[in-house]
Queue: 4 jobs
Job 1
Amino acid sequence: MGTWVTLTDVAITELAGNAGLHWVAVDLEHSTLSDHHFEQHARVASLSGITCLARIPAVDHHRIKRLMDAGADGIIVANVQSRSDLDAAVAAMRYPPHGSRGVGLGRSHLYGPGFQPYVDTHHEAVLVAQIEHVDALPSLASILSHPALTAWMIGPYDLSASLGYPGDFSHPDVIAAVHRIRTEAKNHAAAAGIHVVEPNVAELETRLQEGYRFVAYSVDFRALDVAMRDGVQALQTFSTGPNSPLATKDT
């Protein structure tokens, strides 16, 4: 279980590690975070003993190389629609002869001394495919069977939007698409993933019971927003209740 990071302050990643989450995914698709911000989060993740992944909006060979050099423990590729997307991602993540990644020293190599140990293990980097478009459904078997794939994750908002029902996760067509993905995934080894958008423990438990094993639990700004709104709601209830000391005219 992990969470999405969209805010610049690295305290978010530190808090995630202190809380016991297994990973953070720095969102470089829907946030304003830069590759520089990613490196800062990756540095704190290392110090906090938590895996740091980078979500990218599309396969970009040069950007993947830079993120891996900056210390990414893996890449989440958004909107995967074909096996070739994953082939290209693997090529960008791995050095020859297993890929075509350019070689240069960086944070992931301890700025030089850790180069050989990194080369020996870099093929273990996490690769996650986000399935979030109706056009990916015909290619599910070839996507989910990719040997380098660690996990797949349904992107509920984009998937529902591609079907014409943005955010309507209860629409029969959306439910059917999710069922189709999950059914095909049972034939393959990659871990099942999903985004539990709201910080709701009951929904999290339901998803775990359904067999999801790579779960993004909410996102930093939703966790903050929900917690603050719950506090305000409690205050309003207390302030207007019949026995509230704040409900008197003098107060």
Job 2
Amino acid sequence: MKPSWSRTFAEKLMLTTVVIAAGIMGLWTWQQYIQPALTRPPTSLTAEQLVPKRWQWLKSRTNQELEILSHAPRPAPPPVESLRVVYHAAELRHPFASVLPETQTTEETGGSSVTLPPLALQGIIWGEVEPQAIIDRKVVKAGDAVGGAEVVSIDQDGVMLLYRGRTFLLKSVH
């Protein structure tokens, strides 16, 4: 096969004609065979299966029955009050309220001059190699700092915190 730049004008014209003819034949084939097959319903279905049930019922009525049905009084629609749905959520919980129990802090050692800043214990991850806790939406482990307090230890009862030389037990209120 020769490279395209070395072909003669007659060869190029013949090749162009063949490509155009193939495109026209492809388009004709699409219009004659493929497109009608895509829009035609499957031949395995009967006419009754293709027509919805409500039209089959309508088709089975005589003209006299249809005339009577068209003039028959329609039932009045139900009053709007019966359609209105009223929700009472007084006994339900607030959708954005936390389902976690509130936290309670107790001071382990004496002295009332130091108070722990408000910290929320949201969960304890127990049973791992290193227990962790979620305090104010932050995952902490022993030795980490949160809210100015250092986490001393974490056990199933709560989190032991060291704050300004005092120890506090942060635990969930059940």
Job 3
Amino acid sequence: MLIPLLFAALLVCACTMAAVRGGPSERFAAAVILVGSITSGVAQHMAGHIWDGEDLGTLAIDLAMLATFVAIMLVSRRFWPIWVVAAQFLTVLAHLGPLFRQSHISIPFAISEQIWSWWILGVLIIVMKRQKRPHIAAQ
């Protein structure tokens, strides 16, 4: 129960930092992460199982997030979206193991999915910490 709470705290921290300090790419990425995290939780709850073989609902959400991150990467002038796309691609790849083999092997793949989600939040937080504060025009 502690790990989901820590993830939620990190998610709130990353989204708040993006809202306060981020540009359009950072804000949109934070919104995608927030919506993706919530809908993934709902999809897993509706499926009635977590990390038990195939999870096509979560796979669809992760694919949609990947497509959105690719779009952000293509319009951004910053380097960080490339790292986010790579991590999200690895998250999508982690879905393939349980799809091809229904057994105890789904747990390591589920852990891999979680690790890359944490990585994406960490990248967003680091980007926000390193970004200069937005300039407020003097009136």
Job 4
Amino acid sequence: MTDRPIDKQILARLFGDDDETQSAILLEYSLSLSAYLLEFEQALAIKSAAGVQAVTHKMKSSSRTVGAALLACECEALELAGKCGDWAEIEVRAKGFVAAIKSVQACIADDL
């Protein structure tokens, strides 16, 4: 595991050492994070635990695939909280979750 929000070794293991391919994948992933963040914020606004569960479930595997392990763990915790309808846990984790998304996106932007 690395201190960076994205472990590019994970990405390289799956997609090879082609920097152009990795950059294209990370750009698409970053764009998807923007859409998912909006979906997450909408679920928060209407206090939809099911909405939080749905969006974090979608983000979890793609985050793992690109090597965003910390964000994937945050997704998993929020997915479980959403599944259990644990709104207090969702509220506690929301700010850190958004910060983790922003950190991953900044890392990707720096690498592109």
